[in-house]
Amino acid sequence: MTRFDRAFLHDATPSPILRIACVAAILSTWIGCSRGGSPTSPSGPPAAGSMIVWAAIGASDVTGIGSSVPCLLQDCANGTGYIAVTARQLRAQGFTLDLLNLGLPTAVIGRDFETLGQQYNRVIAGNFIEQEMPFVQRTATLVTIFAGLNEINTVTAALGAGAGGSDPNGYIDAQVRAFGADFTTLMRGVADRAGSPRIVVLNLPNPAGMPYLAAAPLAQRQAAQRAAVGMTRTVVNPLASSSTAIVDLMCDARSYQASTYSSDGLHPNDGGYAFIASEVVRAITSASYPSPQGTCAFMSIAP
Asked: Total domain count for the chain?
């Protein structure tokens, strides 16, 4: 294995805290099994002072890994991840919350990426479609979704091990299309469970500008960038509508400040989660949250 390949594969094994988080998150998912009710169709921002029934779909970001107080259970009064901070801010505005934290650290969006990661020795605890989406409350009025970084790290690990052969860009683009198909399945599953809740989706920052890839080979940064920009432009951003708000992390300069990241350079710290939470609160409560940018300088960090 060359130095180039080892660099690609460096992110394949999560830290011990992620393994612990996996167990706790799986338990919280099982707790959520009993929730249910009748579908609702609010779609727009919640009325002032109303009850918000919220399902948070995601991976380690949803549990707040990297923050000073991760939340490994459904709701966490003192957590400092973006879900917990968002919940406190919404409650401070007078909303009542029924929050189901479905976050599963190391998870990816679908079984295809789970299988791909396992093929290249990545630890992946499950996927959103099979382990999270089926437990969205039938009464949910809000669903938040953040997907993509674990998938990108899986794709770059595969490339580092020789996947893609002489056409790495073609391989990346095929994985972006697979991500899009999985996202369509996820969104349809949410609709089948809860009707038309308000949905807030976070698009991806460009990993080429994130600290965890600062010392990576240019080819790896370019590959991660191509995947992230493809996922953002062709899958996530087109979802923007009156009922679906997109938090534009890709084109937000705060996504690239080293001071917003924890020591691993991948997960935000308290300050990073706080800025994400501020945008998620706006996206939930605003009827005129801005659409994501179609292009910006942060989409081409790696030359």
From this structure: 1
